[in-house]
Amino acid sequence: MITLSGKIILRTKHLRIREFTLDDKNRVYQMSREPGIRRWLPDQVYANIEEAKGVLEYLISKYERQGELNKLPYILGIELISTNELIGHIGLSPIEEGIEIGYGIEENKQGLGYATEAVAKFCSWALKEFDLDCIWGVVNKENKGSIKVLEKANFKYEKKDNNRLRYIFK
Question: Is the pLDDT reported for residue 2 higher than 60?
């Protein structure tokens, strides 16, 4: 299904997980300025809307190569069905061990189960879509919210690596 917001990849009870469009640049920029993003995902903090637009252009360019692991990252928007608003992102990126899940939900929508809902659905789909053996979840040991998300989404704790905890989804 194609909408004005972008191609919808997955649906959950409350969410649409969809491709970004350049129309998302203002929301992506706004979310990048939140304290939680600044703390846990500092590489996703943008100086201005033009920088956010440039990142979106790069991410959008990856969509035509969906399913090809050497073309990662593969990052999608998370949209709330009830309001049609973009509330976050989710995607896959390469790491040394293989493939890592990354996600973020805007602060005023955290604690409502949306990240867990998105991560569980997306990871089950991604294992098949990308023919993966597993997906890693790497989280700062102080990021209690993200740890809860991984555990509720059926990631299993593997090991501690300095100040990071490593979880695995199979």
Answer: no
The count of domains in the chain is 1
What is the tens place of the pLDDT at every residue in 38-87?
Answer: 888 888 889 999 999 999 999 998 887 666 666 689 999 999 999 999 99
Higher pLDDT, 120 or 2: 120
3-state secondary structure of 42: helix
* Euclidean distance between CA atoms 5 and 54, whole angstroms: 18
We report the CATH number of the domain holding residue 118 as 3.40.630.30
- The DSSP element (H or E) to which 100 belongs, if any, is strand 98-105
The first and second tokens of residue 4, run together, are 């004005």
